[in-house]
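Exam revision sheet. Question 4 asks you to relate a sequence to its structure. Input first:
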Amino acid sequence: MDFAPGFHLLLGDNAQGKTNVLEAIYLVATLRSFRGVGSAQMVRHGQKGYFVGANIVGQGAHEARMYWSLRERTLGLDGRPVRKLTDYLGVLRTVVFCTEDLQLVKGVARARRRFLDLLLSQTYPAYLPLLQRYTRALRSRNALLKQPVPDPVALEGFTRELVAAGDEIIRLRRELVPRFAPLAREAYGRIAHSAEELRLEYHPSVKADFMVELAQSRRREAAYRSTMIGPHRDDLQLLLDGRSAGQFGSEGQKRTLAIACKLAQAEYLAGLHGSPPVLLIDDIMGELDEKRRSGFLPLLERAHQARGQVFMTATEENWRRDLGRDLQRWRVEGGKLEPLEGLTHSTPE
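Answer key, structure tokens:
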């Protein structure tokens, strides 16, 4: 399909493939699914693998191609294999709004760490390889700790690698949160129209010196046979009037806060890169009242002015008035995508 700049509304019944379109766009941008599933779960039933290809037009033109199966995995950019993720990430930037966003507030710390990691990956290309380096060291170290008598030389080597990568991850997360928090606070106030004060606090597992604290936790590591401190145990606290939103917030407050965080993510990316990311809004507008829908309008207007793209899925057209001028409607049925005729179309450049 050839998607012009502007708004694209994907209409269809449930289980027809609307979310697949959004997932493919998100996959091209981030190399992962926003549904939190692995590559094997993205393969169509009865098939061996999946292929996704995209021609991306932004500050430059790029051609992305990826194929995944149990036996073969390829990622190409502009006709050449991608050797380093830093050469690929950032070619396309996107922010998704979906029902899973509520886990940012209600879920375990891992959901909030993933949010920080994604934002850093979108703004600092070296971050994802750094995170992968830390994860490999952590897995190897934990495997050693599970042995009856860990090899002290190997353990020391993986500990040094863990600390080197972990210190850099902590530094980048610590720098990100104060820059991101004001945008989330502003977005929340715009949607909630209340006097509640939103505060975001980064709580690193390491308090001062990673290497020293690892040494101090040796007894606990021996008992649990696992690495007990490090960035893999960090958390991002979301506080309303000083109290945990996840524990004490109402369902409405939690939903509003989740949307505010994603709006802030889009604003942060737009401010940093000078153009809005592609917005993917997956079937959530029908669940939102008018007040929460209105929180999207400044972002959508900015996307319109910058000739950006917005993709929305819905089972019925229930947000037409707020969308503005450039609106392309598509019918999604049985995995096929067709433009709806006789309706407003945006004009491609």
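Marking note for examiners. Residues 152-192 form the longest helix (41 residues).
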